[in-house]
Amino acid sequence: MKARVHITLRPSILDPQGNAIEGALAGLGFEGVSGVRQGKVIELELADTDEAAARSKVEDMCKKLLANPVMENYEIELVG
Amino acid sequence: MKSCVIVFPASNCDRDAAVALEQATGQKPDMVWHGETSLPNTDFILLPGGFSYGDYLRSGAMAGRSPIMQDVVKKAEDGVPVLGICNGFQVLTETGLLPGALMRNAGLEFVCGMQTLQVVNTQSQFTKGLSDRTYVDFPVAHHDGNYTADEETLNRLEGENRVAFRYVTNPNGSSRNIAGILNEKGNVLGLMPHPERVISPVLGGEDGAAFFATALKEFG
What we know:
The structure holds two protein chains of two kinds.
Chain A: E1 2-9, H1 16-27, E2 40-45, H2 51-66, E3 72-79
Antiparallel strand pairs in A: 1-2, 1-3
Chain B: E1 3-7, H1 14-25, E2 30-33, E3 44-47, H2 67-77, E4 82-85, H3 87-95, E5 101-103, E6 111-119, E7 135-142, E8 146-148, H4 151-159, E9 163-167, E10 178-182, E11 188-191, H5 207-219
Parallel strand pairs in B: 1-2, 1-3, 3-4, 4-11
Antiparallel strand pairs in B: 5-8, 6-7, 6-9, 9-10, 10-11
Helix pairs in contact in B: 1-5
């Protein structure tokens, strides 16, 4: 089973990289763009076949390593 | 007094830190590879600056899960002094020994140069020896030094006198100009600037020598 973890900065955390991207988009002439936030995606291949077990394992990974709860939120997506 | 420096892959201030510790204590520190699982007998642990694991995932994230860190956390909880400088500070926040996180600098640029710091806490064992000074000059060199924590944590740090140093001119967007913080017990200090780079006039300053000499004497 494949898992995809989406890690994003918590809304309260300033994202200077997102702001810079937003500025660059405006510079390229894209109008009406706001709220640009940069995050990361981590893909994992899991031997598990049980969806609930896989989800709880990835959840544990997020808490222990993949995300830093001080500044980041995460969402887990299981794909096939 | 026995001290040690933890060496991670891509630490790059470990040898500078060793020179500073030797100058302050008269004894060469033990250099401990991150893959070890237990520390030698030690009275002072230093986590040096650098780019451990190439800053993969988040600065300090991989190093914070290195085998040696379990023993560092245990020793810190037992009261052994731990000083994390720059990347070492990032590692301390990643292990949870210190609250908050060091995020990308607000200006997005790597900042490098001398900074004047206000000595905020003059009671901790790390900083007591600097109580006759209002300011010290230590250089900074970092990309991820923007100290971030929620309001409650920031208020608690200030209320408990755990802000050790503040920038006079904020170089990186750090909340409340924070350059260094202490843990609750006062035996763990995380510091973004580099005192080990100013331990001799030929290096451009001696404030770091004063910091190491007085802190190690307090803990000695």
